[in-house]
Amino acid sequence: MNNQDAASGNATAHEALLDTFLDDHAEWQRWRTWSDETTHAVHESLCLRAELVHEPGSYMSKWRFAVYTSPVGVRLWHAAASPTTPPGIVDALLRSLATHADAYPDMDGVDGDEAQTAATRPLADSGWTSTPEAPGWVRWTPATGTCFLRHDQLADSSTDTPAAWVLSGLDRHRARWTTTLSAGAPATALADVTEALADHEALLRRGTAAPSPVRTPPQPPTPQHNRRTP
């Protein structure tokens, strides 16, 4: 499969991912922009939103997420995912938003060692190790080095910093992908996506493709041939 085919297949998986999410969560509504370039999934509280860009440019995000204090309030935290991000990573964040929709507007960001440990526990449980990097930066990596999580601790004072947390790695086609979360993202959201990151790295290590959460249409029943009694 060439890069163009891989990109096309990944885009199709992301579109199907949004359709499946909206089918499974009636409390989220589909909104289309007037230009039809993006589709929004908006929670009934109007405090949580996910945006899918159908044909992003080379340096644009495929997905953008945001949580607000109220329908007209300030943005608490946000996240973004590149077009090559494995669907399983995006699915984890979408379902995290749906599961904790009522609590997220009141959750604080990762503040202190205890919250950071909770946010990265799925990686530690999978054998990842953390090491200091640049001043104020910490990086978590598995033994394979194919993926990483990086935390910019100096960004914690600004909830608008777009890349306080960076998840990155290779997809099944060996293309680099990146997902970012702002400093205000709570430990619950980070734990959900780091668990998906650990699962993705484990699948790559075993040489298998990360599964896409795309529904398989039901198959017609197999005809049964009546046996004639002798």
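the 2nd protein, sequnce then structure:
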Amino acid sequence: MKASRVAQLEPKKKCCRKKTRCVRCPVVIMRMKRLEHEGLGGKELAKRLKMARAA
């Protein structure tokens, strides 16, 4: 999945809190929306997606 499309996904109802968060996790989607709003894109956005899922 492309990092730019994650912000438009529908989040799950509840976070599973696993070590590597899933793409539809509400926390990941919230962070990606914030980054997209700041104007990040491309490779930087993909790098930040990895960081958001690892947290």
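DSSP finds three helices and no strands in the chain. Residues 26-38 form the longest helix (13 residues).
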